[in-house]
Amino acid sequence: MIFQNLEPPTKVHPFNVSKCLRTSHLAKNPKTRILCSLKRSIQLALSLLANGAKGSTLDEFLKFLEVEDRNHLNSVASDFVNKLSGSSTEGGPALSLVSGVWVDNSLPLNPTFVTVAESVYRGKAEVVDFQNKVKAEEVLDKVNKWEDSSNRIVLANALYFKGKWAREFVKSSTKNLTNHKNQFVRTFDCFKVLMLPYKKSVDENAASLSMYIILPEEIDGLLPLTEMVCSDPLFFKKYVHDPYPKRVTMGRFWVPKFKIEHGFEAKKILQDAGLKLPFSAQAEYDDLLLNPGESLTVSKVVHKSYIKVDEEGTEAAAVTCISAVFACASVPPPPVNFVADHPFMFVARDDTSGMVLFMGHVVNPLLE
């Protein structure tokens, strides 16, 4: 499949942080096996860095992240971090996010910034001797093996996720085009949406998470479908949550197992999307450093993710999807096939709050 390069969005709203990363990376790497783009993870890391910015640099962060001020910024981040923490309680999905800022030891950190990083973001803010090659490589290996001793600051984020489905697949039944009956699915002219709920924690206040498999009808329809999903913050309200769900009979049903371990450098993509000043030599990070006026340039934005989906995370008999077409009560609808034998999107989402944790796409699940 060949995809055309995309122009960067002219207006960045929360979904466009994910959109600009995904569509740009997908357009430039059309044969990528798997891509996982963590909208919330990157937003959280940028929000942490914004706490060290001042003046026009801070203003650009706030505009890009669409928040009014630092209080609003940290309130949004705190809500997300707290929800994320609640998603890993007993019986529920294992979901953890780590963000950090590493700064050269010639630039001591502002204690206020360190306090915010640790208390609000539950992250790390540490000084490192980047001129010491051994020490530098130890830190850089943690964030994705960026071997560059000229670094003065590194911003990094990582997410790990593994969840069990509400009911699991029987491994002996996971064969090509295994049939599963009486499930919910929602169909449209150009795509289908399948919902796979995760087993919920025993904690009643924990997040209610589901994975959505969004399958384009056309074999080469992944890129336009990705643009559609990522550019519309009301996508799930419009196309997934129907107030009158109707059970339909499934025909052929097949979703591949896949494992994702993916990382890439996102700084250039963010610059193309409009976040320019924070990555330039003119950036002001006086609130990050103990001594204002120091020259500081962000050198890398490392983005890395891992997720595994297999039989333990999927039980076809427990799938809850929604039909878009309502037939007469006396005439049952025809069976709906859901065969993910070509590139598709997946989205992990908290169905209670509507918060999207991450999105990704699978091009070829057979390659390691």
TrEMBL record:
InterPro entries: Serpin_CS (IPR023795), Serpin_dom (IPR023796), Serpin_fam (IPR000215), Serpin_sf (IPR036186), Serpin_sf_1 (IPR042178), Serpin_sf_2 (IPR042185)
SMART domains xrefs: SERPIN
Annotated Gene Ontology cellular component terms: extracellular space
Domain Serpin: 15-365
Domain of life: Eukaryota
A GO MF term: serine-type endopeptidase inhibitor activity
Family listed: Belongs to the serpin family.
Name recorded for this polypeptide: Serpin domain-containing protein
